Amino acid sequence: MMKWPSLSSPSELDEVKAESNKPKFSRFKPALCLSPFAFFFYLFQIAPMLWVSVNSFKVDDEWSLDNYGQIIDSPFIQQGFSHSASISFWSSLVGLVIATLLVNSLRRIPGRLRSAVVAFTNMTSNFAGVPLAFAFIIILGANGAVTLLLKQWGVIDDFNIYSQWGLLLIYIYFQIPLAALLLYPAFDALDDDWQSAAALLGASHWQYWRNVAIPVLAPALLGTFIILIANAMGAYASVYALTGGNYNMITIRIASLVAGDLFLEPNLAAAISVVLIVLLACITAINQWLIARSYHGKH
């Protein structure tokens, strides 16, 4: 025989009746509240992705794979992918290391100073694009203030901010604040008592980090590293403002094919964009697999 759930008080019975008497329309309120977000997500994310995917298979109003074949056969486009991947990887790695040291130091400073540094980091994370490139040109350009000062002191002989090293420096600069903001909550998982316990057991500072802290922070570090790579791979404004499109990056190639005066090939640009999306999706999938393994390993 089926047993009805027992209610311990009349108030619980009233709550059940009130819940059952709610109009059906109220059940759809959460979905209605999310509908503006879903609309804009479709408008600016899904729809452009569908347009790019469909048009990547078009050549002169005909369906073809020639755009992808041109990507495979073009050393210039492959060089753009290589340059973007190289700068993205190294800037993400260096930015992640510096941000990890920064966040670890933030945990040991007083509250007001910590809040001030976090607020400053939040502000600098939005300082990118053309203003960032302009600031670096003023400071480290051929006649920049810091460049002239370092040359006068004999520290450097020749530094070109418009080269690969200059781009790497700019990428590292805007990667650090983003990495710090993403890692800051993750460091709450570390307990200061763990380091004290490790020291009592005879572990050195580096042994504590290698065997305790880094394994705990590994999922956050991996996730942040992937986000930084995606952030760097899609950067365009800073590169274009600094080099004027003269350095071969994949985002520069896509923009030149879409808005170029001589080589206007939007379908080829769509194919390159699809390849870039697939690469980032594969990197993200690998990251999720590593995080899942780490999670299951702890349980």
Automatic annotation (TrEMBL):
The chain crosses the membrane at residues 31-54, 87-106, 127-150, 162-187, 208-230, 268-291. The keyword Lipid metabolism does not apply. Keywords: Cell membrane, Membrane, Transmembrane, Transmembrane helix, Transport. It comes from the Bacteria. InterPro entries: MetI-like (IPR000515), MetI-like_sf (IPR035906). PROSITE patterns: ABC_TM1. It is a multi-pass membrane protein. Belongs to the binding-protein-dependent transport system permease family. CysTW subfamily. This is ABC transporter permease subunit. It comes from Vibrio tritonius.
